[in-house]
# Entry
Amino acid sequence: MSQALDEIKIGGLGSSRKRVEDSRFIRGKGNYTDDITLPGMLHMEILRSPLAHARITSIDTSKAWEVPGVHLVLTGEMMATRNLAWMPTLSYDTQAVLATDKVRFQGQEVACVIADDPYIAKDACELIEVTYEPLPVIVSPMQAVANGAPVIRDDKQNQADNVIYDWEVGDAEGTERAFAQADVISKLKLHYPRSHPSPIECCGSIADFDRSTSRLTVYMTSQAPHIIRAAVALVAELPEHMIRIISPDIGGGFGNKVPVYPGYVCSILASILLERPVKWIEDKSGNLISTGFARDVYLDGEMALRSDGKILAVRMHADADHGAFFSDAQPSKFKIGLLHSAFAAYDVPVAHLTARGTYSNKAPGGVAYRCSFRVTEAMFFQERMVQAAAADLGMDQAEFRRMNFVQDDQFPHRTPFGFLTDSGQYGECLRVGLKAVGYQDFLRRQQEAKANGRMLGIGISTMTEPLGAGNSREYDILGIKMFDSAELRVHMTGKAILRTGAKSQGQGHETTWAQIVSHELGIPAEDVTVEEGDTDTAPFGMGTYASRSTPVAGAAVAMVSRKIRAKARKLAAHLLEVSEEDVDWELGRFYVRSAPDHGVTIQECAMAAYSNMPDGMEPGLENNAYYDPPNLTWPFAVYIVTVEVDPQTGVWDVLNMVAVDDCGVRINPMIVEGQIMGGLTEAYAVSSMQFITFDAEGNCVGSNYMDYLLPTAWETPGFELHSEVVTPCPHHPIGAKGIGECAAVGGPAAFVNAVMNAISDTGVRNIDMPLLPDRVWEALTYRRDVFGAPPVRADE
Ligand code: CDP
# Structure
């Protein structure tokens, strides 16, 4: 007789349990870095460069030192005496901590003041006199490789130009041969603009060095505290066990909080020198001007097509603007991240990608903003090209996708760039999306509207994202292999504490990890406390970015729960006085197979682990698991947008947006929907209103929220979400795939494709994002493509 618990009722898999972390967040009781005050704490402010490229001829800090309340003024020269003027980046480049020789972007860190309060520190910063000798400025990859371009990184030996890498992947000759067979060659050139994750909370740290114990504790806004501990140990040569990194609550990260920033390093050195805690909290302008930019890639591609619609080959070239330092935090050996995950969902026989990365006089860029290392650019390019190709062939864009998809029976599928996708129902997702949007009906209404001078458009975008870096065979950061971890301790009363190597920045791990434990052990989710972010207590892990938490740390949570269950089974056998082989499991309870009424709960087993264990058994019920995924997980999605464009003004309105996401098994459907809505909102923002650009002098235009627009509920369209397609991940212990980023990755192309579809009669092939009304108007009026980031155009 089964007494299994109702999994949904105890908050297990599939339960839309309310987010437990919200009870403190919505009461204003979150514990963010800036909420922490330590006894004797000082405050640090950073002086930033007003120029984008200039030689520093002198820095005079004497007036700043004289300000009452100032304790320390740090310059690059002082950092250099401790070998800390430069630091290694996660991409094997170097980055200036405080400038010594030159400044290389507007907003670069030049000096720091540490004072009794942040206002004194800020005032004193303004008294630092820096003499600059301006140098010519580079703001695009085209300028970076032009003849006579100034060499930005003249600090590096053997760096005679501005090229960081020239990289290629795929089969050049095979692609060439396929192009020779093509009936039609479809071409597209576009720019994915520089964008900024702009989390609500900026970056910050509090370093607290205690000379008496030689311990360094740093509270910081890091998505990957263990990587920071490793970096501090290796770079500053401090003993690892003497370093404790604590990431408290984090107010959004989106990739912005993965890299190591100069502010962190300076606050640590200041604390060591002053033997007092030093707090640095970045202001909004500092965050928007200097940290964690993404994208800024020029893409040029062509597709070889057969007249019946079959894709024969794809050729792509990318020019990536990395800013002044190559500081991408991406764990692969691939120079341009996972850009070559493009076309993974399509059955493309052969492809070739070349990529060139260049320096420019912009803040370091290329971080993975809510995506798995340039997958956003990959999917945008893919779906814009697919739409252009369908148009060039005169084919229906939905049918063109459907016929070229990898079909359900083709898995596992090797992509033309070498990835292995393992599961998906691409055609079914498209079918559900088209039905939801009323595709055929819309096409009819579109024709009717056209007859009345109205412009309606429909855009489709699909995406498959490689999520869950590792595996450790192929992915590492500075040699540290990509895996993740979980540690579970079940107390004697059956309550539990779980710790993982991931770090939530708002994604809801405290809620969903407990649900996995609940699913595996039958312990109610509310009985499981989840902790992350403290390197002294959490097991070693690589942190949270690239939607890797569920694929990797979430898998570790399932695996450690299974280890606990295995020990609990032995305890159950002991309590039931039968052999282990005679014991069966149902959610939350072991029972004797031949006498199902005779059983013990997981809670009774927990008590026995501390009070009544069999002879020879180690007491306690706790364990840990390190999980190295065999493959990435590959969620899939179809996003469909309908719009109306005003032919007079270029203003466009979203009529409808349908999202069909297949992320395998959903742990918490409500949280998954929240992740999708957030991603779609960001996608709408990037496609319609956001850009951070640079004028010819390298001034950053858009370093405030009057220029860099965040959509509010007012302008964000409604989204219709569909969850009916579920393809469990074949290698994940609970069948889950990542979801956090999918909508931000796949969404932008749907919006742009819809507008381009609406204006297709003009012959305009492309308008680069953002599709501001004036840019759409320009395309409509002059019947020409609009290329590049405003206001600096690459073609000018
Ligand atoms: O790494 P990150 O947490 O940003 O992304 P994720 O692993 O995709 O998870 C985002 C949130 O959605 C977490 O709270 C997950 O546990 C939850 N999720 C889920 O409930 N079901 C899935 N199949 C995937 C994620």
